[in-house]
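Deviations from the work plan: none for this task. Representative record:
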Amino acid sequence: MPYSVLILDDDADFNSLLTDIFEQADYAVTSLTNPLEAIDVFRETEYDLVVADHKMPEMTGSEFMRHCKQIRSKVPVIMVSGYLDNDTIRELIREGVGGVFLKPLNIFSLLERTSSLIEEAKKLESAPHKEQGEESEREIDAKLGFSFRSFPCKSTASTSLANRLYSLRHFRSTLTLIGETGMHYRSICEDIRGFYEGNAEHFIYLSPGTFDHAQVISLIEQAKEQGAERVTCVLLDFENMSESEKKLAATLPKGDTDIQDLGVTLRAIYCVSHDLDSLFEEGLIDEHLYILMGTAEVPIPPLRDCKADIGFMAQQMVVDIAREKGRPQVPRFEKAARDLFREQSWEGNYEALRNTVQKIMNTNLGDVLTLNIVKAAMHGNAGASPRARFESHLTSRQVDLVRAAAILFGGDRPKVASFFAANVNAVASKLQ
Amino acid sequence: MAGRILVLDDEENYAEMLQDLLRGNNFRVDMATRPERAINQLEEIPYDLVISDYKMPVMDGADLLKRARELYPNLPFILVSGLMNTPELVKVANMSVTLVMEKPLDTEAFLKQVARFSEPMTDEEKTAQAKKTEVSDSEIDDVASCYPEEPRFFSAVSATGKRFMQNAWSIAQTSRDLFILEPFGGDAELGAKDISAWRGNSDLPVASFVLPDSNEEAILELRGILSEQEQSNTVCIRLTAASQIAQAHELTESAIKELEGAANMLLIYVLESNETAPYLDEVGPRGIVLPALNERASDVAAYARRFARMASDRSGKKNCSEFTPEAAFLILSHNWPRGYKEVQEAVMQAVKSTENDEAISADLLQKALGIEAVQIPRPDSRLLALMSTAQRCYFEKVMSGSGVSAAELGRKLELGDAVQTRDELINMPLVKSELGKL
C-alpha cells in the first residue's frame, strides 16, 4: 500500500504542483486548501506525513502543525514556504517540524526527506516504550506524608513498613513486631508514638529483668499525671523475659483489676525476634500469648532487605554520635565507604551497624570517613573467617546476578522477576 | 540512574559554563571541545542528549549532527549557537535537529528543554557527587580510595569492578606508573581512558603501544607522545610477556630521569594473562589484577546492553537492543573466556545478523559466539544454575590462586568431611542453597 500524504496549501497553483510531485512519486495524496478543514480531515484519517505551507490566511503553518501534533504527535510535518524568518524556523524546530523547504523547491531533496521521515516514524512506531525506571520509589518516599525516623525509607521494604505501621496506629489492644535479632524496636515504637499529637498518648518501655507489677503501676500513674489517657506498654526482647514478667505482660493489653482502677486505657506492643510458631514450639510463649500476639503481626524487614537505607542510617548514626560527643564537625562517609556498608549482609542488623559505626567514631577523628577506615572496622567485626568470606562472596554474587538481569532487561523489574520465577518485591529488595 | 549529557563547544569557557550550569542542576555532564573527538566519545558511550555549538573549526554542528544521526537516528541533539543564517537553519531542520537555541542563552528555557531529554541525578547520586567535591576541596590524604566520578568507558556496576577502579585510581594518584594484570580480552584500556579523564586530560586520546624490545626505543616513543599537546599524559603500554615486567620498571625510572613532562605522566602497563597470581609479586605494590568477567555479571550486562543499543541504534533496528530471557541467561551463564572483546563482538554480530527487528535471541547469540546450543533451564532453576557456577568459579579461583588442595579448602570452608577430591569440591551443590532462590 502506498504511503499517504496530506498536502495543505492555500495557493491553488502551488498546491497542484506539490500534489503532482508526490503523486508522481507514488504517494496517495489528499490535497486541501483550508487549514481548518485539513485539521478535521487529519483527525479522521491516518496519514503518514503532512506537507503544509506556512503562510495561509486562516492560520500559520506553525499553528496548523501544533494542531496536528496534538492529534497525532508521531506524524512528521514538512513545512514549505516562500520565505521564513529565522525565529520562525527555530520555533518550527522546537515544535518538532520534520523538515523545512523554501521556494524555489528542490524537489529531489524534498522527496528524499519525505521518505526518510516516514521510514524513521515507522521504526519508532514499532519500538518499545521507554521504561519508567525507578521513579516510582522516589515518589513513594515523597508521599509518605508523616514523620518516620527509624528507617530512612529509601527502600520499598522500609517504606511499606512505615505505611503499614501508620495504617495500624489506631490498633485496639495488641501489636506484635517480629524481626530478626538486633532490630531497633525502641526507635520503631517511638515512631509509632510520633504518629499522635498531644499528651494523651504515652508509651512506656519494659525490658527483661527490669520491671514488676508495682513498677508498672507506678509508671502508668506517672504517665497519667502527665496527662495520659492511653498508655501503650512496649515489651522489648519479649521472648527473653522471665515467666512472671511474661505473665504480667500478657495482662497488659487490658490490665488486671489494680491497673484498671487507674482509669487509663492500655495497649501492648510485643517485640520478638522469632516468628510466633517457633516461639510457641520452643515453649517460650504459651497458647494464650500465642493467640493474643497473633492478632496483629507486623514483620520488620532485616537491614539487608533495605539496602538503600543502610548508608543513610549509618550517616544518621554518625550525626547522633557526633552530637553526643560534642564534636564540632559531623564527619561524612565517602561514597565508596557507604557502598561497602550496603554490600554487607548485616546479620546483626541495626545493632551490628550501630556497633561498627560506634567503633569507627571512637577511633577516627577526621571529617571524612574513608573506605579504608570502614574496612578496618568491619574486619574486626566480622572476624572474616574463610567461611564467612566465602558466604559473603556468594551473597554479593547473587545480588550482582539480579542486578545484571535488571540491566539486560532495561530496568524492567517484572521481566526480571519472571526471568527468575520470583516475585517483583524480592527482585526490588535485591536491587537496592 | 541519570543518563549522561555531552556538551560540546570549541570555546572552552563556554563549554565549561554550560557544564557548570547543568551540573548545578544535577545533570551528569561530559564536556568536549573538539567535535572530531566527540565523535569517538559518541561511539563508545550511549548518551541521552548532545548539546553542541554550531560554528566550530574542522567540523561544524551540522557535520557533527550528521555523524551523530548516522550512529543514533533518534539521539536528542540541541544546537546552541550564535548567529545562524536561514540556509544553515533550514539545513539542520532537515537533519532532524531537536532544538536550536540562540546565544546568549535563556537559561531557564534551556534547562526546561534539557529536562525533557535527560533525567537529573537522584538525591542519593547527588549527595555522593557533592561529597566527592567536598573531599577534593579539603585536602585529605586518603581521598585515594574514591574516584572522582563514575567511569564512562569502563563498566563498574559490580562491586568487583568498582573495587578494581578504586584501587587503580588510588595508585594512579600517587605514582608515575600502574600495572594492570588483565585476563584475555580484558577491558583495562577502557579503565585507562577513564583514569586519563580523571587526571584532567578531558577527552584527549590515550596513546597505546606495545613495549618494544629496547627501552631506548620506548623512551623515544614516549617522548613523542608526552611532547604532543593533542595526547593525554596518561599512556597505555602493553606487555607481551611477563618477562617484560622488569623492563617496564626500568622504563618508568628512565622516563622520570630523561623525559620532560614526566612529572605529570602516568604509564599504565597492561599485561594480558589468565595466570595472574604468579606475577603479582613481580609487579609490586603498584600492580593490580583486573577480575575476569565471569565475576562481574552486572558489568557484562552493562557492556552487552551498551553494544546492543549502539548496534541497534546504528542499524535502525530499534528492538534489537533488547534480549529474550533465553539470551539473557546465556549472557549471564557464559564464561566469556575472551573477555570484554568477546561481549562486544558477539552482541554486535548478533544484532547485525538479525533479519527481523526483534529482541536478540539465544540462538543468534550462540551462533555469534560460535558455541554449541546451551540448555536453558526453566525460570525457577535459573538462579540456582547461575549461583552453582559462581560457586564453582570461586573454588577454582581460590585453589589456583593459593595452591591449596580441594580437601584443605573444603575443611577451611567448613564444608564437611565428604569433600576430598577436586571434582567433589567443584561439583558440590550450592552451599548456601537459599541463595538459589529469590
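Confidence is low (pLDDT under 50) at residues 128-141 of chain A.
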